[in-house]
Amino acid sequence: MPGVMIVENSNKPLWLVKKLLSSINYEVTFETDNGFEAVEKYPIIQPDLVISDLTLSKSDGLNVLKEIKKNHPDSIVIIVSSLQDRKFDECQTSGASACFSTPISMKKFVTLISGINATSKKDSKVAPVLVDE
After folding, report:
1. What is the value of pTM for the model shown?
2. How many angstroms from the chain centroid is the CA of residue 93?
């Protein structure tokens, strides 16, 4: 079962993401709202996937992405924002596997995660995806 690190500072999206991941046989192996903690724990936990909000306590999702990618270039990191964020371009340039604005339909979320996982198993280069509801 693939393991997921979730970096999110709001309980409602966190609950929904966990439920959706569970429905497609992903296990949340670590969750935090602290960007520095996510970067620190990444090499220990070695998740198959990281889902990070852009707005966090202690750092932000863009810094989490950059730090994880710097030391683990093959990592799969998805960036989420409740705002249609102008930082999405920078996130994609920095190596995000996908960026999406919330709310996103459950079906699109599941399709996105499944597609990224399937692509990553075939090829170490995952094309970035931008989902805009």
Report:
1. 0.83
2. 15
